[in-house]
Amino acid sequence: MIKQDNEENKINILILFSIGLYISYFGYISFLKFYSFGYRDFDLAVHAQTVWNILHGSIYNSILGIDFLGNHACFILFLVSPIYYVFKHPLTLLFLQTISLGLAAYPIYLIGKEEINARIGAALAIAYLFYPTLGYTNLFEFHPTVFATLFLAYMFYCFRKENYKLFVVFMLLSLLCQENIPLIIIPFGVYAFFARKDMKWAFTSIILGLLWFVVIVGKVIPYFNKNTIQFIKIYGALGNNMPEIIDFILSNPFNVLKVIFTREKLLYLVHLFAPISFFSILSIKSIIISLTLFQHLLSQRSTEHTIFFHYAAEMIPFIFISAIYGIKKFYGFKVIKNKIPQNVFIFYILIISITSNIYLGPHFKVLKQIKMYKKDMWDYQKDKFLSKIPEHASVVATFEFLPKLSHRKDLYSFHHISMGYYTLSNIPYKLPENVEYALLDFNDFLTFNSFYTPGRSNENLFKFIMESDWGIFDKVGTIVLLKKGYNTDKNLFVTLDETPEITNKVSASVNNELTFLGYEAFYDEDADSKEIELIFYWKALKKIKKDYGNFIDIIDKNGQIIYRYIKPICYRIFPTYAWQSDKIIVEKYNLFIPKGIMKDIQSVKIGIFDYFDNRIYAMHSSSAQGMVDNAGRIIIDYNKR
Description:
By secondary structure, the protein is α+β, with helices and mostly antiparallel strands.
């Protein structure tokens, strides 16, 4: 008995150490990601602003354009706010997320230990910490639903230990995390009914789950949402409203199966269950995730049926809990019983877990790519631009700037301007007139890919920037800081009817539809870090169908590329497919050269690519000898003025 206790104590220490290692590792990555502008959606900023506003007596979220309870019913943020009061920083949310997800390993260990034994319980807890879906959930922004991962795991443990009071406490805490948690709680009640415990467990789960879902989804969210964010669009293949969707599901079961069983969604199921060797499906407890899994599989939003985001957070604890009981059942089969040594089975669990993570998960990939989370020269430039915005000024910004701007009442996401609508909505978006600053990176991937529609978005951007009272407060590369009412003669680009005097004439054409007429290059020779001010002259030879962009290569004395800058021509505001063939386009761009690099530069070259297919196109010139290299790039002489 003493020997067994000693072993369990050692295993307990191992689990706590593993949890601590997980929290330290992902906490460190979260820290690096935050300071290197690695959070490139708006979820972290939305929740950071929400908690900041709660501390200032408001539940309005300016990024969303509604009270935050109209987006998701994350009442748990009211409980988070006292912690945020002490540690006022978006990193607080990221650290709480990591701590919550890491600590959920402990109830999984306890359940595994008590249902099977301590060694297998420990193996499953470690497998949980290496679970690919868990890692991606941890790394993708911040979401209050991650707290449900911990609360639901402890809820089940209290159910198993028949501690009704704590069971209800953890259930309520779980429900506070998000409005879809009843889709876990209700099936849990069905399971509890068949588990033949006192009926209070089943009735509490089913009744409380149903009431919560009906009240929150039917009354609370619509009240605060005011039809601004239309989540029903996600299920548009089934109907335009809840009655239509329910009718479709009940009357068209075969069509529902077609929606669910696509190649992409089947692969998602494999990614969910393969790292735990599909043991979950051997247990009836897997029914607990049925409704929420069904919800995600019916969604048209592709991010909901992939493990690379956060949508499986509430399912994760029950995938592992059902796996525990599945393994217990597996060991009970006559053909298996006493034939597989325990140590061999534990080794198998860990090998499958680690192998799955190597192929699917982020744990090892992040370790290999940790350099990309360290601040580079552009991150320091972004911090410099942020420092120029007053603390309480109203701002609209592209995604990567939002988290660091989130402690203010009036903050807006530029992607709404690009789309012209609110997120998941057909309501036109109008930015408030009182916005003072616009901080934009025209290379922000999500803004100018996922939320950029050629032909519509460029017109929205043109109207916003060129036809409004904005002045260029500062710019470098593709980063531009605009200030309302700021007097400046600077422009990002202009159109002319006639060709002006050009210092460096080139006349190189691309596909016989676009001509690069030439350029100007200016810089301060005495500065430690160079900003070469470039002016490019373009002309369309005919109506252009492509969306051409530039890349600028900085070449060292060995002929190697030191940096490649990617830039859209005319900042995605006036793309080449919108040009008229009789106009001259004069584009201005500040090329940033870091300290100490100027002396190593042999040449600067510009090339052309297409945003639609990412293909690189060569530029050709019969008159500009020595100005075009063998790869079709223009050689820029930055010494000329």
